[in-house]
Amino acid sequence: MTPIHVMIILLLLSTAGYYLGRRRALAVAERTGGPKVLHSRPVYYGALTALWCAVPALFIFSFWVVCESTVITDMVLSKLPESIQSLPADRLNLVMNDIKNLVNGNIVSGEENADLQAAADYYQYLRSLSQGALFVLVAVICIGAVSILQNRIRPELRARNHVERVVYYMLIACSVLAIFTTIGIVLSVLYESIRFFKIIPVQDFLFGLKWSPQTAIRADQVGSSGAFGAIPVFIGTLLVSAIAMIVAVPVGLMSAIYLSEYANRKFRAYAKPLLEILAGIPTVVYGFFAALVVAPVIRGSGALIGLDISSESAMAAGLVMGVMIIPFVSSLSDDVINAVPQSIRDGALSLGSTQSETIRHIVLPAALPGIVGGVLLAVSRAIGETMIVVMAAGLSANLTLNPLKTVTTVTVQIVTLLVGDQEFDSPKTLAAFALGLLLFVVTLILNVIALYVVRKYREQYE
């Protein structure tokens, strides 16, 4: 029985515990004067029973699944011949991988080994034994918890208080988990970035004008020492993002104004979902569209007027990225414009303003802080895009502001640097973390500015 099956059984037992607890509460209430004598509603007694059934078993299940592989691996290794146990750690890991491949039915490279086959059979036996024991333990805990709580259900039991306290602690745990996840991401990127800056000076990275991270893979290999100036990469990022925002902001804002101020309800009910379909299209599809349709059109149009346009250009990537971000700008702007009270519009119209004047002089100024905040968030989205740039803008880090030339962005370089057989502690690989840290700081600053603008200039309406 696999862990998935155990989880399904745990869910079924918890559901059964809910109905048993609720029925027990109703039975107790009938004997003592009706539901009014209960401290809490019967559903809370059912929920408390389900929590008693699920939470302890879930803790045991999680601990078991985390530790199972390590314990079984140690037990299998202890049964191997001494000649295998004495191998170096890396060779021993390869042996263990061969054993796991045999367990999973995969073909192992090399000749068949009786010791490995015996170890694989022992591994399979231990795993089956572990999964059976886990099932029995989870079932016993669930049934025991339900039985204990069934006997504790009384009219004076504060089931609602207990359930709400458990939910309260669960919410705290989720919040703490989110916070520590963010801290862990930042610290991991920061640690690797510090290792990079010990090799490459910070000033060379921040102010260097050439990006060529190719280095020798081995000490005895002749290769480039690399150039890690980040300015060409960030210029390319800003250029592609600027083109995208030139497309997305006017189109998204105008569509939001039309949908919120001019369109009737029937048209809005169809147009808004259709517009937001653009946000659900995978970015790789946008990349294909940019590489196969937009880039050839731009190159062909330039050839007609004598312009030399690269097959991959910032213009192609920026235009398609702008189309992708249109629903982002439109949705945020539409929500902000709709938040402006109708009474303000009516007041402007009653004073003789036309609808367009009301929109230009009343609605948009009132909604401007939210619109600006949405645009800055859209900029953060554009800066973090990868797939479209990979397929439409290229990989060359050219220091140029010409949108018809090949450029690259920070996210593309991060992907490129982490692909291949380069050593993980080499400057080429560590440069990806430095770029990631710098990109994190830039997007964080943009988000902080957006929040500041929204909070400082947001109008308060009753």
Write a concise keyword list for the protein shown above.
mainly alpha; MetI-like fold; 16 helices; 462 residues
Would you write up a description of this structure?
The protein is 76% helix and 1% strand. By secondary structure, the protein is mainly alpha-helical. The two termini are 59 Å apart. A two-stranded antiparallel ribbon has the order 1-2. The chain is built from 16 helices and 2 strands.
CATH superfamily of the largest domain: MetI-like
Helix content: over 70%
How much of the sequence lies in strands comes to: under 5%
The major sheet is characterized as:
2 strands, antiparallel
Category by helix and strand content: mainly alpha
Measured distance between first and last alpha carbons? 59 Å
* CATH level-3 fold name of the largest domain: MetI-like fold
- Rg calculated over all Cα atoms: 31 Å
Going by CATH, the architecture of the largest domain would be Orthogonal Bundle
Q: What is the fold's blueprint, element by element?
A:
Blueprint: H1 3-32, H2 42-79, H3 82-85, H4 89-103, H5 114-152, H6 159-199, H7 202-207, E1 211-212, E2 227-228, H8 231-262, H9 265-280, H10 283-304, H11 314-338, H12 342-350, H13 355-383, H14 387-392, H15 410-417, H16 427-457
